Amino acid sequence: NQKSKLDNKSIKCVHFGLSEEYKAYELYNLEKKKIIISRDVVFEENKCWNWNKNEKENDSQRIDNDDGIDEEINTPVAVKTKDETNDGIDTATTPENNQQLDEDMHTSSDDNDVIQFQLPPRNRRPPQSLDDFVTGSDIDEDELHNLATYVPNEDLKTFDEAVKSQVWVEAMNQEIDSIENNKTWQLTTLPEGANVIGVKWIYKTKYNEKGEIDKYKARWDTIRAILALSAKENWKVFQLYVKSAFLHGELLEDIYVEQPLGYQKENDKVYKLSKALYGLKQAPRAWYSKIETYFKLENFEKCPSEHTLFVKYGDNGKILIVSLYVDDLIYTGNDLHMMHEFKNSMQKKFAMTDLGKMKYFLGVEVTQSEKGIFINQHKYAAEILSRFGMENCNKVSSPIVPGCKLVKDENGKTTDTREFKQMVGSLMYLLATRPDLAYSVCLVARYMDRPTEMHVAAIKRILRYLKGTLTDGIMYKKETGERLELVGWSDSDYAGDLNDRKSTSGYVFMLSSGAISWSSKKQPIVTLSTTEAEYVAAASCACQCLWLRNVLKHLRKDQIGCTKIYCDNSSSIKLSKNPIMHGRCKHIDVRFHFLRDLAKEGTVELTHCKSQDQLADPMTKPLKLESFLKLKTGLGMMVF
């Protein structure tokens, strides 16, 4: 029975995984019922081993066969010495030395590149599909927000499951009715040479304020600025919702799609789209072009610095402000007649839902009262705690231990990367109303690639702090007789990151009585002094200042004179006004000297402040409790 060199040498096996000891694969030999290790493997990737089928065909191939265990234990084949033998592995013979083992591992396939172990067979485990995962450190905020939406096993995945539920059947009927009433498509024959796009039902629950948050991209700085202005002027803010917004977009190309499952009319026909449909890459742009055209016809002016902000000016200083996010929009102004006309016009042009006064927008709860406008995310914060099993945790008074410095912790025990990223993503969206969490969330987000127990402890402390501050938010107070002035605060933590010695920049902008814009971000370069670190942070702050001034100008709240940016470093202030200390700063990138030009033009002015009054301090470093609570109040945060 000896094989010749022309005979087949392949053995049909089941892949178990990678070997922990050798650079090779662990395989299960179905004929000899043994675990073998080999590097010469060809995978049948389009097939999956059917345990149930093969059990019926050949009981000898069962991995969990008790007789097979006894048979294998008596087989005198091994690769380890007695000292190296693991528990549960019975070895009768061993190689003479490690050199012999290395020679066995480096033999070619002709020399039978297989090392056999006498492991007891493992319990049968049917193949399972793995969950999706995200890797990499360059994850943007959109992706992090998207992680916050993950809720397993709630929505249906197939049409067969949906037709068993009357709720989903009605939802599908409503969607088809909406598409046909909007004249989105027409049934036709597919032209020769044309491509057809497949369609499928997506069953996704849209949660309200008691549920979860979808992926959003709105500029919260603009929305908070509008709320601060409305609170100061005692304006009411209202909200509208556009039904099936993407179905209104006009298409310029000929696009054909299949008939949806369960609603086929003629089997040999397809639908030609005359308007955009959900899932098309052209749909968002087509809808925006449609709504932008409407605003232009209604004499609105689009803000050059914020393309989702539209303003209509009337006689005698009358103004109507509209901020749009896809199918949700808010509007306010100083003339009720203009607002009433706008609502009626929108309802005639599009299928609209009038939500009344703004109460809940993109996951943020809004309370309008005689004292002003209060925003927070109480329900969402409570949901975060419940999702990660922290609803009954002990409370703490600060989100991070004073003086805490996190490192990569290369020797630390790794934890569940996916859950850690979900925590970070959830907390990221919470920053829409919580500037007190900016630095702590920014810090833990740096370690998503390989979180260890140290990093999990840090993020769980944030959740414990959240437990004690669920109802905290920002209050924009009603103020009369004072000019609406934009004020900025800039700070940095020199070489605060112990891994790469980069500094952290932080800024805060106050409008009226509350913060409207803030940031905590690691600087892109390694700075050589505290002066340079503060100068780089101030330059970033100045860029945001310029953008906010342009937005306020479009809202008819021009900033008279320069905008003050408070900084607690005298040298960086002098450097912004005069190119002194040239020998020490000649290496600074020219882009950061943009700050000097703005100061020269009179657009911004760096002004010195005491460190204990620096409102941007919580954005750059962990503070003592007394200082943290004082500056938190200074940001306009309170319990309403």
Task: Summarize this structure briefly.
By secondary structure, the protein is α+β, with helices and mostly antiparallel strands.
Main sheet properties: 6 strands, antiparallel
Give the percentage of residues in beta strands. Answer: 15-25%
Mean pLDDT: 80
Number of strands: 24
Helix vs. strand class: alpha+beta
Alpha plus pi helix count:
18
N-C termini distance: 87 Å
| Assembly context of the chains | single chain
Q: Roughly what percent helix? A: 25-40%
Low-confidence stretches: 58-117, 128-139, 141-153, 207-218
Report on this model:
This is Copia-type polyprotein. It holds the Pfam family SH3_retrovirus. Residues 91-100 have a biased composition (Polar residues). The protein is of the alpha+beta class. Among the domains are: 13-117, no CATH class; 159-204 and 238-357, no CATH class; 475-640, Nucleotidyltransferase, domain 5. Helices cover 30% and strands 20% of the residues. It has 18 helices and 24 strands. The strands form five sheets. A six-stranded antiparallel β-sheet has the order 10-11-12-13-7-14, with helices on both faces. Strands 15-16-17-18-24 form a five-stranded antiparallel β-sheet. Helix 4 (141-147) crosses helix 11 and helix 14 packs across helix 15. It is globular, with a radius of gyration of 32 Å. The N and C termini lie far apart (87 Å). The model is unreliable at 58-117, 128-139, 141-153 and 207-218 (pLDDT under 50).
